[in-house]
């Protein structure tokens, strides 16, 4: 992508900015955060999508703050084994993600089974961060 850094043979190489590159993007590197959210399948799943109701509000939060195409995708259907995993799992990768704001929002939600909620954020650099609601135990 023009104007964005690219990795060539293990070294960082900057491509020249293109006509659609904002000044804020010029010279900035991609900073990716991997996000995984696990909840109990016992959460209220009466939303039209069949996913937990609170997950719908998380998707709305992401759309408002990270952009309309920045969503978590449900992944538990890809699990192996012969049984449903009895959990809801969603994940995604985000650039320049507001990790602390997102974690605070997710942890503040009124989970029915907070003891089964785990949010994992894997920053591109640094330690993996694991969040649990304060009322989990």
CATH topology: Alpha-Beta Plaits
Number of domains: 1
Structural class: alpha+beta
Please, what is the oligomeric state?
Answer: single chain
What order do the SSEs take from the amino end to the carboxyl end, as H and E? EEEHEEHEE
**Radius of gyration, whole Å:** 18 Å
Identify the CATH architecture: 2-Layer Sandwich
Total number of helices: 2
What percent strand?
25-35%
Quick check: average pLDDT? Answer: 79
Helix fraction by DSSP (H/I, runs of at least 4): 10-25%
Number of strands: 7
Distance between the termini: 46 Å
Task: Explain how this protein is built.
- With 137 residues, the chain is of the alpha+beta class.
- It has a single domain (29-131), classed as Alpha-Beta Plaits.
- Helices cover 18% and strands 27% of the residues.
- The protein is built from two helices and seven strands.
- The termini are far apart.
- Residues 1-26 have low confidence and may be disordered.
Short description:
The chain has about 140 residues and is α+β, with helices and mostly antiparallel strands. About 20% of the residues lie in helices and about 25% in strands.
